[in-house]
């Protein structure tokens, strides 16, 4: 089953992974991650079906993600209240002026809607920096923010941007996972945190899988954390139930000098 077949058969879903404020562990939105429900293979991750950007069906997939995320936001609003959502889109989609206008038109006109985050891979942002900056400035007027995803070794390319237009940087999981024991990873993380905060943006540690990683991210002054330590991606109905019971989980206690 390829993407056109999946769209026609309504086999695509968005699953959600929780983000948390790092210092309070209060839920702080969620990232939408696409999945395919295959009749023989079950739930299929995107690596097995996402088409190349040059594929004419890639645009239809992006349109699905936008429409589904907005519909899921309305569902979550009725179940548990407003949840700030982020979606992943390619830079090629945002290069289409008509697509960007349609995206802005779809944003809910609701008092509880705090905005939509669009995550773009850092390699695409850096390779198309002028375009990314222009789009980020335009969509902010429509309650849409651009988050740079998977920020890593090429972070210096983002230094010195005038009127930094991006609202969030997400540090690549390869620099967060295991950072408690690796000084090089800590150095990269600290530099990206400094860049984000100096630019007025938030910074997320993605890939927090252990308590040691969490404590290291806390010490390095990340704003938010996302990873399997706090929850795996799950369907929207299960996500709503998990948010309802989140406060019942045992908190991670920070001890001085830990």
From TrEMBL:
<dbReference type="InterPro" id="IPR035919">
    <property type="entry name" value="EAL_sf"/>
</dbReference>
<dbReference type="GO" id="GO:0071111">
    <property type="term" value="F:cyclic-guanylate-specific phosphodiesterase activity"/>
</dbReference>
<protein>
    <submittedName>
        <fullName>EAL domain-containing protein</fullName>
    </submittedName>
</protein>
<dbReference type="InterPro" id="IPR001633">
    <property type="entry name" value="EAL_dom"/>
</dbReference>
<feature type="domain" description="EAL">
    <location>
        <begin position="1"/>
        <end position="247"/>
    </location>
</feature>
<dbReference type="InterPro" id="IPR050706">
    <property type="entry name" value="Cyclic-di-GMP_PDE-like"/>
</dbReference>
<dbReference type="Pfam" id="PF00563">
    <property type="entry name" value="EAL"/>
</dbReference>
